[in-house]
Amino acid sequence: MVGKLYFSDINTGDLFAGATVTVDREEMLDFGRRFDDQPMHYDAAAAKALGFPDVVACGAYTFALSSKAATHVWQQWHFLPSGLGVQLDFLAPVFAGDVLTSEMEVLDTRLSSKPGRGWLDTILRCTNQNVEVVFTTKAHFLLRERPGGTEK
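Above: the chain's sequence. Below: its structure in token form.
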């Protein structure tokens, strides 16, 4: 990539590959113990009693991993602080050792009411090593417009 993308460089339907992250067991267990009081997130016996083969990553940890993966996308854009209207969907359990790959799709674009910027409506999909979508995040992101403008 020559440089970062401006709002006018991005179109509805564009896809951006995020980073791939592997779920580290000890990190996942530590996060579960510290931030989620549901035993299925840090106790294998409790998870098995609920029908899971092993401990399950808690939602906050899964979201943190997806944010880490999405950072790779944001680094490609002239990104402004945003991320409004976030919708999280947990679609399948995440386990230690899972390899999560992310992809961001632009669902819509629109100019901001403030000059020099535009909004992207996006969905981030995280899939595991079995190509099963385990988590999605819909969010609105604000990007800078190219200096001197080239509006859509």
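The first strand starts at residue 15 and ends at 22.
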